[in-house]
Amino acid sequence: MSTLLPEPHAYRPGKLAKLRDGLRYQGGIGQWSWMFHRITGIGILIFLIIHVIDTFFVVFNPALYDHTVAIYGGVFNGQYFWPLRWAFRLAELGLMATVLYHAINGVRVILFDFWSEGCKYQKESFTAVMIVFLALMLPAAVVVILPLASAPDHMVKVPENTPVQP
Amino acid sequence: MARNRIKPQGGFELTAWYFMRISGLVLVFLALGHLFIMHIANNVENINYAFVAGRWANPRTGWIWRLWDMSMIALAMLHGFNGLRQILDEYVHGAKARVAVHTTLWMVMTTLLLMGSYAIWMFQVDKAYVDQYRALNPAAASASAAR
Ligand code: HEM
Ligand code: HEM
User: Fold this and answer.
1) What's phi and psi for B124, nearest 5 deg?
2) Which of A81, B9, B29, B119 is deepest in the core (most CB within 10 A)?
3) pTM for this model (two decimals)
4) Residue A157 falls inside a structural domain
């Protein structure tokens, strides 16, 4: 009696394995610095899209602009919410870190492109990126977080909506 | 990333490759400078309509800030959307799907670029509004006057 041997299972990656392979890139520091570069690039772009829309308020509705930026100080609809102020301060710090990393690592990538020997110092240059990043980020964090220790200077009051009168 | 950097051989992709690098270097100055001005030199809680008016409509230095913001928005938009296009091209391969993705990206980018440029070029101070705001916020008025 001959038994029919089952077909050898072809390797079919599932959705998760596909996603993991799609995101992988040779491994090591190069992979991580590249992945962070990509994530921070997309993050800044998303922020920038919102930022251009809110800055656009400036030309057609000053009150709407002031109402929007008052949220930075924790004032929403004329009322003060301290968690809102904390959340925006921390998000602000996150945004600074995002832009700073993308900028410094971007310069490193550009150095590699125009100075081919540079690639040999991939590990060392990434350490340098981290040192520069921390050296700029730590003082910035102090400046950004310190105002949270005291109450806001003043509670912003936004005038009623008025038509633009240039 | 560094072991085999891929540089395009020519055509549009090579131009885009150079553009990504040149715009990146200019943005180091423009975007980090912008963040420094907004967060370190000023307190973000003091940013309001009058603050923006004091920058863009300043008779002496207004053109500098308008030029700064104009360069920043053009470079950051093209750099960011071209970067996003490169990422999406790695995952979207069908010809039709690519045309759809590229068209959408171009339309969104053009709209945002026009909105941003319109704000920079067309900005005029609404003096009545600023007076009303200052009357309601005496502390804010002195904070932005001190700046
Ligand atoms: C601050 C200075 C900046 C520098 C030095 C810089 C540098 C770079 C470099 C060298 C690349 C790689 C390009 C390539 O491999 O062809 C890149 C990619 C990218 N950048 Fe920037 N950039 C900066 C600012 C920005 C800003 C403001 C945005 C968002 C609006 C942004 C979004 C992106 C995106 C989405 C990518 C694609 C990432 C990828 O392909 O993985 N960058 N940047
Ligand atoms: C939370 C952090 C930020 C704050 C508080 C802030 C604040 C401002 C303010 C008040 C303006 C109005 C114009 C002026 O006074 O110059 C402005 C415009 C602008 N900012 Fe920012 N900014 C921030 C982060 C960024 C980042 C990270 C980028 C770069 C990718 C950026 C790009 C721009 C551009 C392109 C304009 C001109 C917008 C337009 O024409 O509509 N900003 N920003």
Assistant:
1) -135, 140
2) B119
3) 0.88
4) no
